[in-house]
Amino acid sequence: MTGCSPIGTAVGVAATTINLATQERGLVKGVDDNLTWIGINQRLLEKDQYLFQKVSLQVHEGRVLLTGFVQKPEDRLEATNIAWQSSGVREVMNEIKIGRGLDLGDYSEDAWLIQRLRLKIMADSQVRANNFSIDCIRSTIYLMGVAQDATERQRVIDHARDIAYVHDVVSRVRLADDPLPPVPAKPAPEVAPVMAAQQEPLPAAPGQPSSTSTPESSDGVPQALPLP
Question: Where are the alpha helices (DSSP H) in 62-202?
Answer without folding.
Answer: 73-84, 104-122, 150-161, 193-198
